[in-house]
Sequence to fold (382 residues):
Amino acid sequence: MTVESTAARKPRRSSKRVSAAKKPQNPEPQLVQLLTPEGERVQHPDYDIDLSAEELRGLYRDMVLTRRFDAEATALQRQGELGLWASLLGQEAAQIGSGRALRDDDYVFPTYREHGVAWCRGVDPTNLLGMFRGVNHGGWDPTTNNFHLYTIVIGSQTLHATGYAMGVAKDGADSAVIAYFGDGASSQGDVAESFTFSAVYNAPVVFFCQNNQWAISEPTERQTRVPLYQRAQGYGFPGIRVDGNDVLACLAVTRSALERARRGEGPTLVEAFTYRMGAHTTSDDPTRYRHDEDRAAWEAKDPIQRLRTYLENEGHADAEFFTVLDEESDVLAKRVREAVRAMPDPDDMAMFDHVYADGHALVDEERAQFAAYQASFAEEGN
Fold:
């Protein structure tokens, strides 16, 4: 019997949660870590970083404010103010660490969950919410902050990043490009193609995979038989696994990968091993496929708490710092709430604008049909 016929006869997966007994029994590979879950500073021979107390407090502030913004956006969706929201809860260290490794002239291609990276690039948090409220297609100019619009199509941004990086190389610039994607996107053909092109053309791009272990309800072991970072070997460039809940390690590893790209040494795959603490989006119910004990185990590795423990133990932050930051968080949350509720409703016909640069007959036809449909309600009212 062939492999294909055997696979074809397998029953469809049930909706029950994945059993822990079915998970691979091989030990997890080593990862780069500079700050343990207990908040203890450790050294790494290849990746290390020396930050001042002010810089450490800055990273902590970034993570706290990003988490508060994310929580407020989730609450706004539950209140009917947003159509959908993709939470980054638990992934703050991966995003803030990598985001703060970037230079101003580097360019970012995000997915739809990189709220922390957007924060690092200076994008106003309220601008992120327009798309999820349905009032715009993004709300910010990508060229202002070198931060591309959010990409909903899974994995496509890695191709955009690769092409952009190839252009950067041809222009002779020493800047780098970073593409964010998740473990589920790593199974997309677009990602494989971007790996091929970036390797062959030695593109100055860093592929930053946030492996939060769940592609909606599909666990990572259904995506790959080897750790994701090892996939880079088949394409001829290095792959690194980093503790995605360690903001210091994420900063050090990403900075090193970006510097390598700027030196003309080609792409790097960074796998930030982390955990999606919340739902995939607000339309998802993770209790149907995940165990509560798994989340509890990862809560003990919380990226914000471990840095706070380190700051307190080393005397880098006092009670006043945390109190002031809590007050700043409240101000941010209030501003976000007020901004969302003040957003005007979009023009019903605006969705047909800018679909094509020079117009298109089919779009014109659809616009006319929709206008007639809208007008029919006014006629019925009369």
